[in-house]
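Model it.
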Amino acid sequence: MKLSDFNYTFPEEIIAQHPLEDRTSSRMMVINRVLKNWKHDQLSNLTDHLKKGDVLVFNDSKVLPARIFGERSGGRKIEILLLDQIENSSKNKEQWRCMTKRVRNYRKGDKIFFGISATSTVVGREGDFLIIEFEKGHRKRAQERKGVPPLPPYIKRKDIADYTEEDKERYQTVYAKEEGSVAAPTAGLHFSKELLKKIGEKGAIATYVTLHVGADTFTPVRTENILEHKMH
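Modeled.
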């Protein structure tokens, strides 16, 4: 199977830049495997298609404010996307693998500033990724002051000033609990607390797992033969 088999025209102007006012107004496809037919409906009507004893599994991973805006020495503005913490981090320092533009322009010892007492130091590179180190407490302060949820690239937010409280609230599921994802488990974004209550009243069972979404979700397919693409 070739990558080119999936080429199609998708007008950029129909990509929503803001969510629907009501999470549950999103459309869904309902497939009846017995009657072998399908139809469109709204998620708000999900309980019409459930019966007592049905089990729904939700991912309660919470999105980190992993997109952080900062400056290099000399004042040049940059942004990084924190991916994961490296295991050899110590008690007083923590190292993170991150994505940023022009990785090859960074040298060991370079500083990235995110405000007072929120600085990181470049300690190396790993392929297309940058390895940076934070002193104790600096990473948390950087995220609190300059961090935002990493919205998909087709949702245009060029700078931290472009982000709204709506972005921070709606790019998170209502049941998010365990912090660790760099992207939202997006199917869950369409559920509201009211709908979850209705699911329980219907006699269906909601259960939760934690599966953090990593940076691989942002990795483009670069090989023409899709079987050669490495996802994880």
